[in-house]
């Protein structure tokens, strides 16, 4: 039985209170997670602040970035360990985790280390009132102690997406991974020690939100900034906590993303793209597509083609060859997704495919598997069209004009992402400008240049990360004025 300990000041720390870590593929207990309380949070914050005033705070940018390159190299050296940990926690297909989660998780350290080394700041020369000269310049200083509150859908990738730039900028971090996925954040503590990251720079606290590590950490006055990826309601609670002390936040929250397919699109490419965006990672992707709008001339053909694609997805455990769809993360989340499947039927949906649980055998019968599901025929006011399900499902509706597609896409409180499929360059540019989101993909989905801004609008978040935009959150820009 694995023991997932807290990682505080370079040491793995047990507590007197534990909770179970269960495998999504069969609901079996695979470990005990040691829950951090207020005392552990206090200790981690104290260690983080001490590190800022110690070796880490005095370290040159060159040395710091060398260490972060070493972290990435050590993750890659222990690739199989990280992959096994991620698969056990999430149950996602091995092909997905081995090509996205672990490589990108490692790359985030190198990418942001290189950005920090090469991003300039501003300088100006001016004439002073007495006829003299003054020069002003900007310098970036670390924000301080950063609380990193992580989701369970891409545990390593989305955690290092925040930890990488935070450390590159000279901050210290305290990570609160999801209670569902404690493994890779804990394993990263071993990597930090092995490459020589000073104590207190990277720390991990396990637990839940309210009344547990999450609340204690985000309310702690010794935390200087909070970054969070997860559902919007949790983001609202963290923002309220951050108001005490006027601390900055960076949030990437929920989405109810639209996919728009025009009649002139490359049909096969559009079907393949929407298949990925609706069903990849069992639909547990904040950037995923749960609302699909298809121009009327190709609507029926598109529904039939997406149905065939969905039904061709092999459902099963991570290591089974050819598996394209794993389980949902937990029994609780499975119950939520199935409740939306029931709501869709009750509201009059036509179930094109799916709508329930697949037949699973042996130990996997206790796993958290659901069918990829497609609906048509629902009004825009229905629950599964308005609310984020976060499962392998989508509703498809027809549209006639470009203006109608824009109106449908924007009829939501969220504003995270969209994917648009068309061969017409003018249509593509107009749609990108008109749809109110943080990320717009044209003839693609989940295609990322990590130098570019990432984040959502409306209820989908606040702030931007990626490239130099991460530096805007993880550093304070100080102005220095010199009278010559």
Q: How are the strands of the largest sheet arranged? A: 17-18-19-14-13-21-22
How widely separated are the two ends? 67 Å
Mean pLDDT: 97
What fraction of the residues are assigned to beta strands by DSSP? Answer: 15-25%
Rg from alpha-carbon coordinates:
23 Å
The count of domains is 2
Account of the 3D structure:
It is a single chain. The chain has a 7-stranded mixed β-sheet with strand order 17-18-19-14-13-21-22, with helices on both faces. A 6-stranded mixed β-sheet has the order 10-9-8-11-12-24, with helices on both faces. Helix content is 39%, strand content 23%. Helix 3 runs antiparallel to helix 5 (94-118), helix 3 packs across helix 7 and helix 5 packs parallel to helix 6. The longest helix has 25 residues, at 94-118. It is globular. It has 484 residues and is α/β, with parallel strands linked by helices.
What would a concise description of this structure say?
The chain has 484 residues and is α/β, with parallel strands linked by helices.
Secondary structure elements and pairings:
Layout (H helix, E strand, L loop, with lengths): L1 E3 L1 E3 L2 E3 L4 E5 L6 E6 L3 H15 L2 H4 L2 H17 L1 H12 L3 H25 L4 E5 L5 E10 L2 E5 L5 H14 L3 E5 L6 H13 L6 E3 L8 H6 L6 E5 L2 H12 L5 E4 L4 E5 L5 H13 L9 E7 L3 H14 L1 E2 L7 E3 L5 H16 L3 E4 L19 E4 L6 H4 L6 E7 L2 H9 L3 E2 L1 E5 L3 H10 L4 E4 L14 E2 L2 E2 L5 H7 E9 L1
Parallel strand pairs: 1-5, 8-9, 8-11, 9-10, 11-12, 13-14, 13-21, 14-19, 15-16, 18-19, 21-22
Antiparallel strand pairs: 2-3, 4-5, 6-7, 7-25, 12-24, 17-18, 20-23
